[in-house]
# Entry
Amino acid sequence: MQQRLARGEAAALAELYDRFASLVHTLAYRVLEDDTGADRVTREVFGYVWENPDAYDPQQGSLRAWIAMLTQRQAVHRLRASQTATACEDTLTSEALEERIREASVAARADYIVTSMPAPLRAALELAYFDRRDYRQAAAALGVTEDEARRRLRLGLQLLSTAHVQPPRAVSPPGYGRAL
Amino acid sequence: MTGRGGPDPYDDAYGESSGGTGDGRDGPGRGSDADLPSHPAGPPRIPPPRSAAEDSGHWPGALDGGIPAPRPPTAHEARADEAWADETPADETPAERAPKPGPEPDTASNPEPTAGSEPEATPTPKPTPKPHPGHEREPALGPEPEPTPRPAPEANPESEPESEPHPEPEPRPAPEPPVPAKLPAAAPAPPAPPLAAPTPSAAHPLSHDLLRSLLGAWALTACSQEETSAVEAHLNHCPSCAEEALRLRDAVGLLHTEHSLDLDPMLRSRVLAGCLGRRPARIPMPGWASAYDAEAARLDALLRDMGEAEWRAPVRLKWFDGRRLTGRDTTVAGVIGHLMVVDGIVAASLGLPDPMGAAAPGSPQARTEAYWHHEPGAAYGAGPPGAVRELWREQGHALVRTVSFAGRGVAELDVPYGEFALPIRDAFLDRALECWVHAGDIAEAIDYPYEPPASAHLKAMIDLCARLLPGTLAERRRAGLASPPRRLVEAGTPGRTLHLQVEGTGGGDWYIPLDSPAAMAAPEEAVATIALDQEAFYLLASGHVPPQEAAAGLSGDTEAIRDVLFATASLSRL
# Structure
């Protein structure tokens, strides 16, 4: 994908958007809580990737993780800029701003964990949370034992709970990611 | 954007990752590599990751068990590890060992990063020292032997706030109340001292593991009433489970339904156009392929968040078979399979692999029936839901990519559809129209709104229909389904004409030669007019309404009008 982008393939850009637009927009929305702002960050992030395909280093992790990181940074940048711009009324106190960024970081991280989670775990969580099935129904729907359904729900939530543990930038992406 | 190097917002937003290898935030080897072997937890028990390449990478440490790993256990974690040491199975996940609120502050604490693996170690509690709160990223990093080398004067926006809620050296995560209302007895009065690790499980030797395994389901309120009661009773005297229960309940709060992932479909074209404005494509996409590219992306977005049940939702595909409306029942998955195998005709003619193999039938209907016959799971929803989406989408991307590379010459390449053929540029428009029509069918089946295509794309699709009408009219005439020509027209000369007027942003005026496909249409020769809005045209041309009931304003020669309405409906097919 990186090579195709570097070659200037419009079709690769379209594919890139199809794969990651939802991730980018959702993460940006988490920070900005504003559709227009999230649209703008989406344009900026894809514009940056398209203009600088070589900025991505596959050694540092997956393309997905890189794009998520770009999005998070740019969204926080936009949030800070908008807060500075509207200096007087309607401005958050700096504590409130930092708290919001912190919460958005946790939420963005949670979003990312959910979207990147192994599919069996996510499927179990979706059945239990979005479809409101109990774990026995989830086990039946997934074709696994009840033990396994309980395990998946617990493990999925454990993974999700790590969103609280560290700010996203405290560690860099693991080094074994593959390019798209 | 001014690119890299200037006072561009991207500089502070993006620039630091490249140069920041010495910064503690960047190096994967900072602590994780060194700590991983010594961490008490074994490799995480996580099912194999999905095959999609982008899922192989993780948000920093999120999924590979790396969350606890890069950070030595805090005093709380060490304490918790002790409490669990002799009943935690060897293959337990590291997440088990996240902070647990010790009910008794004097139980134990271990500042050594590696000592969590030594169950009997019981040093005195030692809150994480925090001499430089301004530089501290997170209290838990306190005992780390390798201090963060660089204070990072320019914001580390995500982590900065981390230090603010915890100005005091209390290592317990602030948002976690020590005594949750739901778990009243967890902290204040544990019946068994948690340091006597075997006690909780000894008191309930058979049920503890089971109860603990239920915590995820409990947090999601996905277990039975009896189980819920049993879990909650257990939480009253098992601090470790109580802590985990609380943590998992918190995690449920992170599963959001709001802001579902419905992107504005028009955002795609704006984003892509913006990118191409900043850096023109060296290998552009042919203009005639853009409608397919956009419509496939729109349909894909509709499919994105569909659950299993929706993939199996019944869908009735409708079309006009030349004489009457007909239909075929399938599922959402079956519709996507249908799109995939018909797209396969285009793929094969471009030299791409045909999803049906080399001996595939030629006509769209025969291919679809063969596919549904051989893949009943796809047609009736017994197979893995949504798997066909990947196949369809990958093939679609390959189609667009291939014609982008092939250049101008490929536009006129014939695509054989069995009884007829289309030049590839029209085949792409036809596939775009099919995407839209079937997206509409799916949206209706799952009761979801779906908008018409972008104006330019809609206009191109209507134009394709208008160009196909004379040939269809002639076919119907040969089959005795349309009235014979009124007069013989020499090829290329003006003949009787019907004025097709489509209203709407994608609409326009088209002139259809009535007597022969070879005749020239001429506005001054118009003998009849059909005026309808684009939605009505869509319903007519997709065979979703009987042609005689199309909501159209009609004037002029009634026979010509009838013939054209029926021919338009006949453009539809399975």
Summary: Chain B touches chain A through 112 residues (CB under 8 Å). Strands of chain B lie at 314-320, 325-331, 414-416, 421-423, 497-503, 508-513, 526-533, 553-556.
